[in-house]
Amino acid sequence: MTTGSQGTGSVTAGGAWEAAHRRSLEDPDAFWLEAARSISWIRRPTRALDPAANAAEGAVLPRWFRGATLSTAYNCLDRHVVAGRGDQAAVVHHSAYTGERRTLTYAELLDQSARLAGALRALGVDRGDRVLLYLPMVPEAVVAMLACARIGAVHVVVFGGFAAAELAARVDDAQPVVVVTASCGLEPSRVVEYMPLLEAALARAEHAPAHCVVLQRPQVTADLVPGRDLTWAEVLRPGAAPPAECVEVAATDPLYVLHTSGTTGRPKGVVRDHGGHAVALAWSVRHLFGLEAGDVVLTASDVGWVVGHSYIVYGPLLAGCTTVLYEGKPVGTPDAGELWRAVEEHGVAVLFTAPTAVRAVRARDPELALAEGHDRSSLRALYLAGERLDPDTWAWAGEHLGVPVVDNWWQTETGWPIACSPRGLQELPLKPGSPSVPSPGYDVRVLDAAGREVGPGEEGALCLRLPLPPGTLVGVWGGDDGLRASALAAFPGSYVTGDGGSVDEDGYVRVLGRTDDVVNVAGHRFSAGQLEAAVIGHPDVAECAVVGVADALRGQEPRALVVLTTTATAPPQEVAAQVVQRVRDEVGAVASLRRVDVVAALPKTRSGKVLRRTLREIADGLDPAVPSTIEDRSVLEGLRHLLRR
Ligand code: COA
Ligand code: AMP
Fold first, then answer.
1. Ligand 1 geometric centre to CA of 377 (Å)
2. Are 441 and 408 a contacting pair, CB within 8 Å?
3. Transmembrane ranges (predicted)?
4. Residue 268 Cβ < 6 Å to ligand 2
5. How many C-beta atoms lie closer than 10 Å to residue 113's C-beta?
6. How far is Cα 167 from Cα 181, in angstroms, rounded to an integer?
7. pTM score, two decimals?
8. How far is the CA of 590 from the centre of ligand 1 (A)?
9. CATH number at 79-250
10. 447/135 Cα distance (integer angstroms)
């Protein structure tokens, strides 16, 4: 199948991608040392990868650019101002809710982040301290991230759609000195007040931040706690605190922690370093996304997710691009034409979002009529990631937009695409259902259950041979034992992505979905355990299982099966409704748990493990083999009919 400017065929051999990919694996030190030239260092790296030093330290994952020093903030801002880009727009806030537009030039972003950095320091934040950011899609989120980077503090951004329990878990894990938040976020149906959520989280958390800095937005004025809370306006008042200069940090120091859903109910804090991250992102913006300084990027995600960290904030700014901070939905704010309005208004070259957003636009505007009349000549490509891109959506977008639709596969842990068509290196044909070829630095292998490599087109576990390239996780906040026991445990020498898939004879990757209990809702990642922890907290629920089932819009939606306690008196429908509300209150509405069924029992193995995968496959209309270890087959048979509804 081919559409618009997309085609298929094998042209990987002998091209720029193949050469770069091979070199990156054969001589990673030389490849990444060369890439490191795009970064301004304080102390230049002499080695990119030093296996002996890594082995001596016993690090579970490699440290890149040991011995080198830099400032990520300097690379994102100051050096562009020095080079004459001070008046160029760095961030354009496009609020689809309010109609507001606000531009911060590189010089203004530098000024504001330096002043906030000074203020954070005055509030006691030192190099290495954590600052938790619980913010909506406003430019202040970018200012705050860069302010932390400026003084070597570690930012921990929490997605604004997470409710109290998730926020509390991240507060306790990160132990921030300061929390930076806003009075509210905006959603199509409501204004979300952040302070009550933060107070509820702090009431549950054991750790208490010394201070909270609160951005008062016009829609809501938050109540502040005297002595603890200060407003954004007062801390940034000229003269309030001396602006901070960039602090020199080691390339291996942590820049940020971003929590994601692991295999347990507890969030896993992915740690990203300064040096490897800066090099990898600057490289990827140019070679995978084909962007140059001055280009405009609109990544319709959220700063709370890894896509937002990498391609709303750091990637575009490291490369001297203009980033459009889109506060809104692809549809309904006010209509399915708002993204095209933004493309025209800001001259967007690359639009990046999730497949769900395209499916939502298509459902409302099947002929893309709302794009007519908007000049989209600046648009060079649409990038999609976060979940599987179905061939039908890919073809529709390509036909209607007339630009390449570039699927790219990655995860919070990797920080940048594992596989992507490298448009800045070489125009490779795109294949439907495939995020194209592995990015340089990634040695993708498909392994069977015994750890043997399978042949082209055969399915297995998608794994990455170590070392992972720069910019990927360097560890998990609080310790790497979990990493050792999970992603690095199954196959020695490989990182297990948790995705199943295949690689074809042309080297194109196919990602079929998670092999673990991660539920991917509209490109947002939740673990079954995280959702089950909220469900089981209901006093009438004795046992539960949450599985992600296929959904035409969101890719997957969670579905819960619950067994009630013997003492439960409320009618099952009432408990089900309360469970739905509980998940909204504990995890967040964004988890989109809408379907809860009360059942008599859950199917389990003889060792007591719930057969989630079998449940999911039956709900998706498949006919999986029943595991021989099942304890009581009749329990599963009794659920078949219900699951298919
Ligand atoms: N703060 C508070 N609540 C939030 C939130 C936030 N930042 N983000 C989402 N929510 C809430 C929504 O208000 C909604 O609540 P409701 O059930 O009371 O209506 C719920 O969480 C589900 O959110 P969402 O999935 O955004 O549903 P929607 O109906 O508002 O929009 C889509 C549907 C398809 C437009 C939307 O899911 C979408 O844009 N998806 C693309 C996702 C994306 O860009 N992912 C990026 C990952 S790379
Ligand atoms: P997250 O860490 O939230 O970014 O989620 C990562 C997971 O999303 C991956 O492990 C995949 O399961 C899924 N994912 C991301 N991008 C793609 C893609 N292009 N195709 C298929 N699945 C994807």
1. 29
2. no
3. none
4. no
5. 28
6. 12
7. 0.96
8. 5
9. 3.40.50.980
10. 40
pLDDT tens digits along 490-502: 999 999 999 999 9
Does the pLDDT value for residue 6 go beyond 50? no
Report pLDDT digits (tens) over 536-561: 999 999 999 999 999 999 999 999 99
Q: How many CB atoms lie within 10 A of CB 343?
A: 24
Q: In this predicted model, what pLDDT tens digit does every residue of 513-541 receive, in sequence order?
A: 999 999 999 999 999 999 999 999 999 99
Select from 457, 404, 322, 427 the least CA-distant residue to 16.
Answer: 427
Whether 408 is in the pocket of ligand 2, judged by its Cβ within 6 Å, is yes
The token duo for 15 is 């091209």
Peptide bond into 334 cis (omega under 30): yes
- Percent of the chain whose predicted confidence (pLDDT) is above 90: 94
Calculate helix-pair angle for 633-644, 612-619, nearest 10 degrees: 30
Is residue 1 scored above 80 in pLDDT?
no
CA distance 451 to 490: 8
CB of 155 shorter than 6 A to ligand 2: no
Ligand 1: which residues within 6 Å by Cβ?
160-161, 185, 187-189, 192, 300-301, 305, 307, 329-331, 353-354, 356-357, 360, 385-386, 522-524, 553, 589-590, 592
The pair of three-digit structure tokens given for residue 96, joined into one six-digit string: 């689809």
In CATH terms, 516-643 corresponds, of 3.40.50.300, 1.20.58.760, 3.30.300.30, 3.90.1590.10, to: 3.30.300.30
The single residue listed with the structure tokens 């695409």 is: 417
Tracing tokens 């959603």 back to the chain, one arrives at 187
Confidence check: pLDDT of 5 > 60: no
| pLDDT the model gives residue 589 | 97
Angle between helices 391-401 and 355-364 (to 10 degrees): 70
Report phi then psi at 36, rounded to 5.
Answer: -65, -10
Q: Where are the domains of the chain?
A: 79-250, 516-643
User: How far is ligand 1, taken at its centre, from the CA of residue 593, in Å?
Assistant: 12
DSSP symbol at 566: T
Band of the pLDDT at 375, cuts 50, 70, 90?
Answer: very high
Neighbouring-strand partners of residue 409 = 419
DSSP H helices, 413-509, are: 481-485
Q: Does residue 11 register a pLDDT over 80?
A: no
Place of tokens 């259902």: 433
pLDDT in tens, 192-223: 999 999 999 999 999 999 999 999 999 999 99
Please, are residues 593 and 531 in contact by the beta-carbon 8 Å criterion? yes
